[in-house]
Amino acid sequence: MPVINRIAGFADDMAAWRRHLHRNPELGFDCHETARFVVEQLRGFGITQIETGIAESGVVAVIEGQGAGPVTGLRADMDALPMPDQSGAEWTSERAGVTHACGHDGHTAMLLGAARYLAETRNFAGKVALIFQPAEEGPGGAKVMVDEGVLDRYGIGEVFALHTMPGQEAGTFATCAGPVMAAVDTLHVEITGLGGHGALPHETRDPVVAACGIVQAIQTIVSRNNRAGDALVVSVTQIHTGSADNVIPQSAYVNGTIRTFDRDVQEMVHRRLQEIVAGQAASYGVEATLRIEVGYPATVNDAAAVDFAAEVARGVVRPEGVRTDRPRDMGAEDFAFMLEARRGAYLFLGQGEGPGLHNPAFDFNDAVAPVGASFLARLVERAQPVAQAAE
Fold this sequence. Notes:
Aminopeptidase, Alpha-Beta Plaits, alpha/beta, eight-stranded mixed β-sheet, 2 domains
């Protein structure tokens, strides 16, 4: 049961859809033109049950199979990133400073390909719900769609999603049971001191030195407060302060990211950040305020769903092209909110060598789209065989 012939037959159409989306990227919840394009294609496939405007610009379309049965949800994200397109492709982004550097254009095209095939054949019982989601890159369109009742309203029992992965052999699948991607939180520290002349530091309370002390102390959380076997990343990524070489500024700002898999570890980091910021501020005679922005939870795959998805994938590609022992990733993904609400799995589809995700030179590999679309379609057919309708 390799790549589905019918899907392979319209590979050029999927490439055309994907390249149209790449030329016209949109950010966050503002994926209205993308949604209109998706709906136009879905209606062209003969799909009539379509809901729009979910999470502002999200789309859910339902395809009915043959007879009664469960409902499987298939999700694709639609939003792009606020960065320049340096792919050099003929279909380069036509919107300055916005590009599909994470493959969401490819994810959407693959789900459209699966939708076209499933609408033509309907070789499954029950229904499939196609979820086209905005704002994966932030601030979390999946959570909004869950909160707006998408999973409940359509009776979705299981949810699955794919993400393209450069550096992984093209057309191969990789995932793991349990946590597959990390939870992400963001730390913000606002420091207020007393500014003054750089030649008279004794008359100031220097927020620059305090910021450096806070950053250095934060580094001890991983090295001295965390059990060595527990995965944890705390990275300070921004320090903003100052305006001139002879001026000690009045304030400074420190920003960073926290990546965890375990809630106890997450709580420990939050506690230690409060203690460090307060202690360092006191020692330098400045005021400092910590704000922790809690983001996406860990993306946790259901073990049985992983086994099932891997079995389906082995029917699309050679068995050795599917691995279920992929090391968990410190990246984050808002599909986590759907997996908190429903059983399911998140898998990576290799797209071969090339620039990595979130690199301005990244471009989705259209050659793997038929593999991904075939996998999504087979998931539904295998999960909901037509024979079930007669039971």
